[in-house]
Amino acid sequence: MIQFYFLSIFCNAVAGYMLIHKKEPGIQKNDITYVVEHDTLRLILGIMSITTGLFKLLSAVQGDVPVIGDLIPALVGFTSGSALVFEYYRARSNLPQTSMDTPVPTPTTMERIFVMHKKQIGFLALGTAVLHFLFPQALLI
User: Fold this and answer.
1) CA gap 43, 129 in Å, rounded
2) Distance (Å, whole) CA 39 – CA 88
3) Number of structural domains, the chain?
4) Which domain holds residue 63?
């Protein structure tokens, strides 16, 4: 369906940008970066990306290979959405935080994937969104 094609490109692009963007303290509410750093918006976009990735696997664009043609955008959307949701969860939990500067001695698998590699996931999501937009019926993009 064309709607999920559009949602996949949109969610991958915005989630990728949100994962790459570094949070800065002291952002004014009228600044555009305030929207990107808003935690509730990040959670909503993460849930949208996960849902779109799941439905992208179930429905294909007309004339495309059913599962394989949308496999990479769906998996990247699912991964970037999971990173945003996990980031929201970690900000509100009372467990020790893992960051690039001061890592906890034994980070969990989820922290290793979604916290330490969030910029790589963001660049992968942005690249997938651009390629999926430019080559809509290419196999595996």
Assistant:
1) 20
2) 7
3) 1
4) 2-134
